[in-house]
Amino acid sequence: MADNETPSIIVNLILIILVLVLILGFIFLFNPNSKYNIFPDFKQVEYKVNWNEEYFLEHPEFITYKIEGKEANIYLRYNVNPVIDYDDIENVIGWEWSLNNKHYLSVNNVVYSDYSYLGLTEKNRNYLKMLINQSPEHGLRIIMERVRKNNEGNIKVFGLGFDVNLHIMIGPETDGFKASDKRLQDLDGVIDRLNQISRGYVKSRE
Description:
Blueprint: H1 2-30, E1 63-68, E2 74-79, E3 94-98, E4 105-106, H2 122-129, H3 136-148, E5 155-157, E6 160-162, E7 165-170, E8 175-179, H4 187-205
Antiparallel strand pairs: 1-2, 1-7, 2-3, 3-4, 5-6, 7-8
């Protein structure tokens, strides 16, 4: 009798283990910041971007940053030459955002207004507040850290998930590059690359 029950017990144990694995998989899928770190693939990564302040952006006014990902799509740029109009609070020096790369709004205004009717998600709105009063370099660092640790997209369970990318464009053209995970760790390297491309763009305009 015991011999007949042994296969059944083994099958039940296997089913229980599979159910537990699936439950843990869903926990990490919907809560990647969970303090429970059971599988090696789920070890938390240090998302802080390194910056030794060796490089600074030479022409931030020509650069557009596009974050691409599930529920994370947004364009960002740094405005250095606003039109002087004291009745228009959008015309200020600093970071601006857009959902279509055409109509830009100052991040300074996000803290006071609700732009959800324009399609701005709550997470993006909270993130934009972090760019208020930030320099071009510190703002880029915040952008890179958000892309590296983006819980709208960079969630992977057993190798499956959604990727979030940062595409950087120089000038009105789409001449730029897509930043990889490795490059997103080194702000000095990204700034150096952007300066090289920006110099070429400025020279072509002369």
